[in-house]
Structure formats: C-alpha cells, structure tokens
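$ ./design --mode recover --in tokens.txt
reading tokens...
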C-alpha cells in the first residue's frame, strides 16, 4: 500500500481523484458493489418462469378502433412507399437500378460458363458411350474365357486309375 494512506484502485473508475481513494472509501465501494451484485443475482432468481403467451387472453378488451387506426396508418405508409418507389423508377431509375455497364461483362462471363458447362456435358455423354462399348467388349471377353476354360478343363482331365494292391 505505500505512503499517503491510500492505494490505487484497479477498477479504472474516473473519479477525478487521480485514482487514489482512501481505504475507508475503498471498503464502502467494495461493499456497495457486492450489494449490487447480490441484488442482481437475487432479482434473477425471483423472476417467474416465462409462460407461453396466450394471445386469446384479453381479446375481448382489445380496442378495435385502435387496431383499425393502426391498420390505416400502415396502409398509408405502404401507399406512400410504393408511390415514392414508382416515382423514383420513372424519374431517377439510376438511383435504384444497378449499373448496366457492370452487368454486361458479368452476363458475358455467365454465358461463357454455360457454354463450357454444356460442352463438358456433351463430352461426358461421349465418354459414357465409349465406356458402354468397352464394358460390352469386356463382358464378351469374360464370357468367351469362361466358355474356353470350361471346355479346355474338360479336355485336359485325365483319369487316374488306382492300382489295387494284390493280396
């Protein structure tokens, strides 16, 4: 703690005292902060659980004239907003619509992408046809091999006669 009877409070409070507070004031401030924290925690605990809002509750007490007035206000706003948008589109469309000078290059790039995609799709179709032909050839070769090995195996078989021991 140092000379002068005070210490520097590390809370960063700008109290105009140069950061030095007497120890009695420091204790009071600590107690006050602790009390505020306790009140906040207890206040959170005592809140009732939020129930689901029942919109039918109090429906008979609704001021229909107020609802009608609110509806009228919202309709008027909608009309005003749409009228302003229409006027801007007719008179100052550059402020609402995008810059067409930027759209043309994007459109051309997108067109190029579509052309490349369609070319790849066509190439994939050609490759698929070639794969079908190769699969048919492989299947035929397998079938011939099985047929040839079956006949060759039957032709290569030798009968082995056992010698019967003479008694």
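writing sequence...
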């Amino acid at each position: 703690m140092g000379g002068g009877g005070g210490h520097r409070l590390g809370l960063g409070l700008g109290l105009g005292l140069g950061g030095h507070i007497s120890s009695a004031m420091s204790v009071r401030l600590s107690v006050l902060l602790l009390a505020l924290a306790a009140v906040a925690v207890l206040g959170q605990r005592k809140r009732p659980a939020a129930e689901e809002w029942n919109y039918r509750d109090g429906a008979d007490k609704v001021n229909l004239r107020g609802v009608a007035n609110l509806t009228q206000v919202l309709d008027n706003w909608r009309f005003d907003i749409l009228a302003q948008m229409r006027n801007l589109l007719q008179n100052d469309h550059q402020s609402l619509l995008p810059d067409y000078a930027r759209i043309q290059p994007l459109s051309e790039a997108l067109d190029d992408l579509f052309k490349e995609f369609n070319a790849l799709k066509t190439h994939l179709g050609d490759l698929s046809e070639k794969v079908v032909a190769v699969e048919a050839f492989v299947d035929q070769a397998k079938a011939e091999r099985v047929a040839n090995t079956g006949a060759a195996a039957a032709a290569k078989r030798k009968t082995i006669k056992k010698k019967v021991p003479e008694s």
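exit 0
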